[in-house]
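pipeline/complex-builder :: batch 7 item 3
reading input block
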Amino acid sequence: MSIMSKVTEPVLLLDEQKCRNNIQRMADKAKRSKIRLRPHFKTHQSRQIAEWFREAGISCITVSSLRMATYFAEQGWDDITVAFPVNTLEHERINRLASKLNINLLVADLEAALLLSQVVKYPVRLWIKVDSGSHRTGVLPEDKTTINAILEVINGSRNLSFSGFLTHAGQSYNCRSRDEIMKVHRDTSALMRELSDSYRSAYPDHEISTGDTPTCSIAEDFGIANEIRPGNFVFYDLTQALVSSCEKREIAVAVACPVVARHADRNEIILYGGGIHFSKESLDQGDGRKIFGELVWVNDEGWGEPEKECYVTKLSQEHGILRVTDEVFRRIAVGDVVAILPVHSCMTANLLAGYTTLTGERFEYFDAKKEYFI
Amino acid sequence: MSIMSKVTEPVLLLDEQKCRNNIQRMADKAKRSKIRLRPHFKTHQSRQIAEWFREAGISCITVSSLRMATYFAEQGWDDITVAFPVNTLEHERINRLASKLNINLLVADLEAALLLSQVVKYPVRLWIKVDSGSHRTGVLPEDKTTINAILEVINGSRNLSFSGFLTHAGQSYNCRSRDEIMKVHRDTSALMRELSDSYRSAYPDHEISTGDTPTCSIAEDFGIANEIRPGNFVFYDLTQALVSSCEKREIAVAVACPVVARHADRNEIILYGGGIHFSKESLDQGDGRKIFGELVWVNDEGWGEPEKECYVTKLSQEHGILRVTDEVFRRIAVGDVVAILPVHSCMTANLLAGYTTLTGERFEYFDAKKEYFI
């Protein structure tokens, strides 16, 4: 009996085999490239999925908040990078973590470095966040004044030590082909090499940390980088397929949604599954049409390629509108459950906050309202 | 000492006075118009805020899921409409609710009515959802064949009784002035009156339920409607201000975000507050610029109008980019906490899942993963 027959409300289905394949492929690549894989756990945020990484030989991880760091620390992860400009208002949590494990933080400007140096009471390794072209945050690599000023703060602090330069080439999300991704990768790599070279004699042990899912999925040679931090690859999603990081058949999560109404006049199926389940992230199909998901058929073995021309075209708070072909419309009835590949798996996982495997197991998701004990 | 000095992570601030004013204004209007106000609780989803409605004389409510109905039922609310095409896969929950309180469900097509008639074991009042122009879901008012077929199912069922016709004029969200909202209101009212008239002799006691926040905020005369079901008005948000339903100074929630970096070269402030806090809903400023929030200054009395030309221009998973004027850039430092009015308060409340009042009280938000006992 398929898992679909047990679903009564929107849930996030997890295909263990696809997910483990995604993890293993990236772990193998890191091994071949002799580079540390420090996967970003913000995508799955689940202690059970984290164990699959451990089985693949991973021991260092990345998270996106200090609270998330405490969650994984409680599960025994003891080398954690919080890849977000450090929020010094959480100094108690920083010190709690730093007193017990290897914690790596990052700063994107001098102000933050100064504040951190004033509150930190235990050893912390600090990365300087570099803006390699995404222009979200980070020090520009040519801004040596700021970099040197931050280094001075680090050198003057008893508890801070300099890890190196960390970047996230988020501009790779604008790519639409493997060639475009490789160009971003080459440009970022060159820029990080130049920056690293200019600090090599003064800081011979500093490291370079890079890694967004698109470049890590496509590139094989990571140049001078010491570690990569992709996250989304654990599940992938329709955005990554559009960017050319993955094939749609590799997407390891799908939202199971009850069908609550049908409109034959416009081949529209109304799903119990809306913005509070998928998030409102959409993809432009190029012709101005926005889509919020694609239909897949689920059996005991999981799902394959999405059905052609069957898209979630609109989401409100709890409703989703799935527009389908004539043939598919006839196959779906009210009371059925259908599965939809998400546009952005990180956001969808955060909203559905838990996983149902194809065998019916429930996996936990980090609870941002809970205080973890470490 | 302002509440802002206690914030260390993104939280949703709630201004009790603004919120109570919004509730009272709508309750007074319903009383003047001699119409039942059955507010939609999907916006706040909080038992404490629900009590403010009770103090304003409200006893009948609307929710968007059966599980949310059990949450408010547990708090003593005993006349609840689930304003979503009924999900018959949750028949156990339907029967649990129907055995204990007045539960009102709705169907948008014949298939759902047939399924419901097969599973319902206790009395349920059933609305026929009518599509009055939003084209999300519902029976077209001219489709008398479907309406009559649904009525036949209801009449043939021991436990179903016919409440009347329910609509949601969601097209009002496309309005940009009070005149445009009034036009939607007049068109919808005329259409519902015509539909009601044609079933008056056969079903003399049937009711008409309407009500989206824009038309309920602006209109004074609700014609033949027996009840209105606005929800968002409890908080309002930047979308409602754009639509012309409210003034920005009436928005009763704001997201408090720590400042984690600043980029002087482009007057950008990096907030700890991203898509998993605000949702990715944006507003088009008319000139192609999308915004995700506006800056307000908070003191002990709350906040006023947003600061001019200070917008959240981009969100990623945990980062927000706040672009400000030169003068405002100089006023904000790393380590400060700023407050941002949200684009869509329903989605933001769902993500932040709890409220902090200006006096530091914490209010609960419905937990969609919890099983409530009723």
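note: Chain A has twelve helices and 21 strands.
queue -> next item
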